[in-house]
Description:
The protein is of the alpha+beta class. The chain has two domains: 2-70, no CATH class; 80-181, CATH 2.40.50.120. The chain is built from five helices and eight strands; from the N terminus they run αβαβααββββββα. Strands 3, 4, 5, 6, 7 and 8 form a six-stranded antiparallel β-sheet that branches. Strands 1-2 form a two-stranded antiparallel sheet. A hairpin with a 4-residue loop joins strand 3 (89-100) and strand 4 (105-116).
Amino acid sequence: MTQILxxxxxxxxxxxxxxxxIVSDFDPSLNSGSTLSVVEWVDxxxxxxxxxxxxxxxxxCWMSTTTVVRASECAAVAxxxxxxxxxxxxxxxxxxxxxxxxxxxxxxFKVYKVFKGRIDDVTVVLTSLPNDMGQGYPFQVEEQYLVxxxxxxxxxxxxxxxxxxxxxxxxxxLKLLARMGQFAPNAGTNNAPTPGP
Length: 197
């Protein structure tokens, strides 16, 4: 049979004399002494690769689902009053600079209104890297935010699990904070005007 295939100008593999015996593991009908044309051998290899690719895709889907699940772990963000009480500072500011560093992202804000804490007109807040499991907040330069921070190692941090959000999405939070601010003894001294949405 090998001779006939060679006469037809087709390359063949003899499983007895090659290192391709692994093919017979995937197809029990192939046993020692069987011959395969190059096309058949490539088809078997592609089939095997498709199986490996399926496993890889399943793994990739599982990993992305894990990330989505982690993001949804903090989907039930605490109410404004509770977030305010547990925050080290609460303010409205415009992002001036975002700088990704080795372990976190450094975000510089121009501060317009302080609801809690003592904050300078320009302040820096840290957040985890956006792809990190720490739920880093994806700040954008020139956007305005209502920011809730917490202290960690003496620095202000925020993340997706706080009430930090775009100012354009914070109207109801701002109303509650304005009412609460009347009774907040530690509210900041920054009296800059709150920008319009």
